[in-house]
Automatic annotation (TrEMBL):
Pfam families: Glyoxalase. InterPro entries: Glyas_Bleomycin-R_OHBP_Dase (IPR029068), Glyas_Fos-R_dOase_dom (IPR004360), VOC_core (IPR037523). This is VOC family protein. It comes from the Bacteria. PANTHER family: GLYOXALASE/BLEOMYCIN RESISTANCE PROTEIN/DIOXYGENASE, GLYOXALASE_BLEOMYCIN RESISTANCE PROTEIN_DIOXYGENASE. Residues 1-127 form the VOC domain.
Length: 127
């Protein structure tokens, strides 16, 4: 068994697509109309056959409530790995990304957390 797609709830698919591609640097792999929404899947630029990140609309009441509650508790919706967290932190700051936690060493890893402007906190980690 292999993870091929994972999803993140977003308040606005267009805004999320812009943030995740222009700020974070992911590449759009699919953008397919599905009723009133779209199947928007992103991939890492250097691994375009790897795991896809689906920008899932949060139109279901349970999705909205889940998203609101984990943000209120400071829980990131997902985690992305980076090779150099300080370099990535600086790059994202320069693109206007707002961090809720600066790079912080925690045992053998270093983490930072930012707001994706679409209703989520996202954690980046360097092992």
């Amino acid at each position: 068994m292999k993870i091929i797609v994972t999803s993140i709830f977003v308040q606005d698919q267009d805004k999320a697509l812009e943030f995740y591609t222009e700020k974070l640097g992911f590449v759009k792999k699919h953008d397919i109309p599905v009723g009133e929404f779209r199947w928007i899947a992103l991939v890492t630029p250097d691994d375009q056959v790897g795991t896809e990140l689906l920008l899932e609309p949060n139109n279901h009441p349970a999705a909205k409530e889940y998203q609101k509650k984990i943000v209120a508790d400071g829980i990131p919706a997902t985690m992305f790995g980076v090779a150099d967290i300080h370099k990535e932190y600086k790059r994202l700051l320069e693109k206007g990304v707002k961090f809720t936690m600066e790079p912080t060493k925690m045992g053998q890893i270093t983490i930072a957390v930012f707001d994706d402007t679409c209703g989520n906190l996202i954690q980046i980690v360097q092992k």
